């Protein structure tokens, strides 16, 4: 019987850790998840994850592990660490890759979650045909991964691709990064809620899902909130094209589930603001990956891209 | 006697063509220039340039030509053409590389002038130590070349790196590209003149050099024009860092000759707007190349980078 090489893909989020075993074809053979917050100490999280991964590998006939890819907020490809992630409980620098390598005895690679998502789209999703593209994740914040000439852009220090923190409004909304007017304060789940609150004067706590439901029912202010979000996003994406001239921009994440409500205004303002050198050449697409699997596939792609 | 391999570097501008013969060490063995506008027909320009280059090579003992690099506005690396350059007399698509290859019988490569300048800095100038950097040219307009992981970024269609056409102001100044609010309408020789005119109400024709002279004499409005230009530029460069996380940004071109008048405010607003992930890590430098030689060196680098 043929041996089956598998890669562990681990996505570390503020709330949950999702993990799975992925074969070269991008099939998730096994997956699991657990709550992040039960582990004050990161080494305990690694022990737990390693135990469930090893057990899973043993139970799959003829399977063996060849590597481990990890996506995490502020994950740094070069240092192998999570560095000063504001939304995680572990402070400072956490040597994630070294700890997983020790626990699993395989090559372990880390990068930030949006970079991992970009690789996942390249190997297994909507970006398969493209050597130059940008992936944008629209969740609580706005993340991004740039692929140039077929390679993920890490930058000189491993922190390239922070498009959510391009300042788009002087003295604009306060951002978690300590500055003002960052793109993600407008174009994200949090941003659209804030926009709706500003339009409606409603102070009560609200979710992006609720704004979506209101817009679906024809609520004028909620529709306006989507229009304004798409206007900002369309312009920001048109500006992004002037940097790396990608063949496609791929949108991913919770906010993208709003479908045409978000995509129609985004497309309109994207085309309207695009320099004529690029007009008609750049595809605006949404991810084709199952949302709950994408993070695992993306993390596993860190290893599979080199095999 | 040892044979000496040389590359022809040709910079095609709206006013002048500068050309030279460059050895691998980046020494310009011979150079010349002629007026662009005398050639309505591009093939006549090529014939003339080829003739003077061949004559020059023959007169240098033991020299032989191994390639030809061309920098030109809207020059496209992939197609080898100048495509729809608004400031050149030849309209539509001009097959520059093919024409020079035919005339000189050597490998000929074209890219836009700012990309060529970036390569020149990498091989022979201030960018030698860096694998990830951005070059910005501040002349009549604002051009840029991005280098990522040691490679010039061309994008999927050869038109990457148009940072001068990032829209920084909604409904801002009219740009030559047909849109409004592009960075180069503020941060360029043309832009600073416009800013000074807006501040002073002076309508008379003026040059950036004149604004510089006024500022040097302590003219309050001219000083303000530099401050505002540096403010826009500093923010734009801080935003650029969030894309490719470069180790350095290198400024080049006529406006940079203003020295501290431009650089001080640019540095101030650059650091003030930089995300804390990057703070203190990105060098803001000026070109170390002789300005009149830089375009020739940059063009020749298109060939020398692969030798």
From TrEMBL, chains A, B:
<dbReference type="InterPro" id="IPR043129">
    <property type="entry name" value="ATPase_NBD"/>
</dbReference>
<protein>
    <submittedName>
        <fullName>ROK family protein</fullName>
    </submittedName>
</protein>
<comment type="similarity">
    <text>Belongs to the ROK (NagC/XylR) family.</text>
</comment>
<dbReference type="Pfam" id="PF00480">
    <property type="entry name" value="ROK"/>
</dbReference>
<dbReference type="InterPro" id="IPR049874">
    <property type="entry name" value="ROK_cs"/>
</dbReference>
<dbReference type="InterPro" id="IPR000600">
    <property type="entry name" value="ROK"/>
</dbReference>
